[in-house]
Amino acid sequence: MNKQQVKWVVLLVCSIMLVACKTSTKPRATISNIAPPAPTTPIFTQSQWDALPEWYTLDLTPAWAALMQSCRVLKLKPRWQSVCADAEMIDRTDSDAQRSFYQENLSPYRLSNPDGSDQGVITGYYEPLLKGSRYKTERFRYPIYSVPDDMLEIDLGDAYPQLKGQRIRGRLSGKRVIPYYKRAEIDAGTDTLIGREIFWVENAVELFFLQIQGSGRIELADGRQYKVGYADQNGHPYVSIGRKLIEMGEMKLEEASMQGIKAWGEKNPTKLDALLEQNPSYVFFREMSENLTAPLGALGVPLTNEYSIAVDPRAIPLGSPVFLATTQPNSSVPLNRLMLAQDTGGAIRGAVRADFFWGFGDKAGSQAGRMKQQGRMWVLFPKGGEPIQN
Asked: Looking at 238-371, which runs of residues are DSSP E strands?
């Protein structure tokens, strides 16, 4: 589309959104069905270092590499320039020196939800390995798609500044803008996705969880592995199939882990497609460089195993150090750690909410799949300024 068409589409979309709440007619399949996420207003309260559990005894050196990755981006921002410059001078093997650096340059702010509560859900994610092929075969018949050419991304801020950063996705149908295809429609096959397959895998559930994780590796028959990473999403909201199974009476709350859902799928193959379709969200991928040592997060830097988290960027500025106080997966054993906010996720919505990156492989997957803990968070901001989005 040319610029005039894009402007017309944005104005049409915004008009639909503004009048949608006033109409009493049956909703049509318009782009307004894809609502932007509700606002998240975090509460930051200045805290003290001794409020952070185990702060004075923790080994901070494993988090230093993650901080250096964040500084690749943060050093371009005025309030972080001197902080990152000073960090370059610190011995990356000296935990005490690093602790002094944080205390001299940053201030901890306790993060609370809009309702004033300071606890939230901490889940886990990882980088899975899937068996696959470059071509469709009887064994490998589930496609991993790249971003389709017909999917539009519309920035509502182009027409309304107050909606800056809020984007919706759709497609053109004649002169109308309608929502992009849901998961069920994509799985059934659409002409616009023919030729967009980058790999084929053997298991629908594994593909589903690859989309939830946002990155992974595909191993071909010759043993070679290729990395794939998040490229885009179809614009529909994420719906938890674990919650759906609980609502259906198929599973208890404590059973609704990734491992539990996979086991249910193996026992109920005839019900599986209908379950997966309950989540209309669909993720598209791109093939990543073989030189990457880890998945790229939304910040644009490689993630660090067990020291990177995904957050809601409307609440926590990407790149920020975040002190996390939670517990080990499916356990009451404390897990207190300095993390770096370097990624986002479709299911990560809210102020006190994080997804803990465990790394690559089965062991990491076991930890990630069992993690659904309560936790508290403190965001570390440069001294001399109020907590603000970078």
From this structure: 283-287, 308-310, 321-327, 334-343, 354-360
Give 304-326 pLDDT, tens digit per residue. 999 999 999 999 999 999 999 99
Q: Which residues, including other chains, have CB under 8 Å from residue 244's CB and lie 6 or more apart?
A: 275, 278
Domain boundaries, the chain: 1-33+153-180, 43-125+294-382
Q: Is the pLDDT of residue 75 over 70?
A: yes
User: Per-residue b/e over 92-122, b at no fewer than 16 CB within 10 Å?
Assistant: eeebeebbebbeebbbbbbbbbeeeebebbb
Query: Residues near 41 by Cβ (< 8 Å), separated by ≥ 6?
Result: 114, 351
Structure letter (DSSP) for residue 246: H
Burial of 333 (0-12, 13-18, 19+ CB in 10 A): exposed
> Which residues are bridge partners to 375 per DSSP?
120
Sheet holding 176-179, edge to edge: 152-155, 167-173, 176-179
Query: What's the pLDDT tens digit per position in 104-144?
Result: 999 999 999 999 999 999 999 999 999 999 999 999 999 99
Where helices occur in the chain by DSSP H, the ranges are 3-20, 61-74, 78-87, 95-105, 183-188, 204-213, 241-247, 258-267, 269-276, 362-370
pLDDT at position 32, please? 37
367-337-375 Cα angle (round to 5)? 70
The residue assigned the tokens 């930890």 is 367
CATH domain 43-125+294-382 topology: Barwin-like endoglucanases (2.40.40)
Q: Which two tokens stand for residue 326?
A: 């939670």
Q: How far apart are CA 177 and CA 198, in angstroms?
A: 27
First to last CA, the chain: 32
Positive or negative torsion for Cα 242, 248, 253, 254: negative
Q: Kindly state the tokens that stand for 191.
A: 């002409």
What pLDDT does residue 219 have?
Answer: 94
Arithmetic mean of pLDDT, 42-47:
93
